[in-house]
Design goal:
Elements: H1 2-20, H2 27-47, H3 58-81, H4 86-97, H5 105-113, H6 118-144, H7 151-159, H8 162-173, H9 181-191, H10 194-205, H11 215-239, H12 246-255, H13 261-269, H14 274-298
């Protein structure tokens, strides 16, 4: 309950400030810079070296990739046929292919399923969503931003993406057990700023006035991200005999998370229909306060 309250409160404060206070110019962009280039890398450097990988954790690690690759295929196919611009198609793939499995997902999984589910939820986040964000999402952003799909350009953008560099460092530190305790404590405190600032930033930029004109895109995108994809992952878990398994439940819930805020920031930085990206994230985040408890109860 406290996790839901935190999410709702931070989002609400952002909404209130955007409508009743004078904000400094570029405030959302400054917040987004901190989120992507400071808070998120700090979280990666702390959490990745702690993971103890095993075969039974493959399901939560691979499940977010199914959601992302499904979004690439679905929206890459229907976007041109519905007359969407490349920017709109790219924004839909990024926001509806990647879930908010870090600051929202980990808190919600712990709140809904207890501490035992946090470990596999971290696997889904770090090896699923984070790596998909740092690799596949950068490729999608590069291609749909209009840049030629040249390997050297994709590699340049990939190695210029701070979370990806943090991931490489974290993987190198993995055999060593991670950073010294004092650095872990400092980076943990920095990483804890990610949740409130990210949701506050969404609240600052959330505009619900475009819901009517974007209704079809919202239904298609959120329908895939928060309904069809989790049900598909659930079906795969049942076929694999993992129904009720804590690792599978955590993976399914992570796949049901609303669109990833960082993916929306990536869309904005590449000018991929930022208005739509923000709308999808905002509406999805609000809806998830209802859909996630329902999904947990059904599991």
């Amino acid at each position: 309950m406290s996790a839901i309250l935190l999410l709702a409160l931070c989002l609400g404060i952002g909404l209130a400030m955007a409508r009743h206070e004078r904000l400094p110019a570029g405030a959302p962009q400054a917040l987004n810079f901190w989120i992507v280039n400071v808070a998120l890398p700090a979280l990666i450097l702390v959490e990745i070296p702690k993971l103890q990988f095993s075969r039974e954790l493959l399901f939560p690690a691979l499940a977010p990739w199914l959601v992302f690759l499904g979004a690439v295929a679905i929206f890459g196919f229907i976007g041109p046929r519905r007359g969407w611009s490349r920017g709109t198609t790219g924004a839909m793939i990024l926001t509806c292919g990647l879930g908010n499995t870090a600051y929202m997902g980990l808190a919600m999984v712990e709140s809904l399923r207890g501490p035992m589910a946090v470990g596999p939820a971290v696997i889904a986040d770090q090896f699923g969503s984070f790596i998909a964000l740092s690799t596949g999402a950068v490729v999608v952003a590069t291609v749909y931003a209009g840049a030629p799909p040249r390997l050297d350009e994709i590699v340049r953008r990939l190695f210029g993406f701070t979370p990806f560099l943090a991931l490489l460092v974290a993987l190198a530190l993995w055999p060593l057990g991670g950073l010294p305790d004092v650095l872990q404590k400092v980076l943990t405190r920095i990483g804890q700023t990610l949740t409130p600032l990210a949701l506050f930033s969404v609240g600052l930029q959330l505009q619900l006035r475009g819901i009517g004109e974007s209704r079809g895109k919202l239904i298609a995108g959120l329908g895939w991200k928060m309904a069809v994809a989790p049900l598909l992952v659930f079906g795969i878990a049942l076929v694999g005999g993992l129904g009720g398994n804590v690792n599978a439940v955590a993976g399914i819930l992570q796949c049901a998370m609303p669109p990833m805020i960082t993916a929306g920031i990536l869309a904005e930085q590449n000018n991929l229909d930022p208005k739509l990206a923000n709308l999808v994230i905002g509406v999805g985040t609000v809806l998830s306060l209802l859909t996630l408890p329902l999904a947990s109860a059904l599991l």
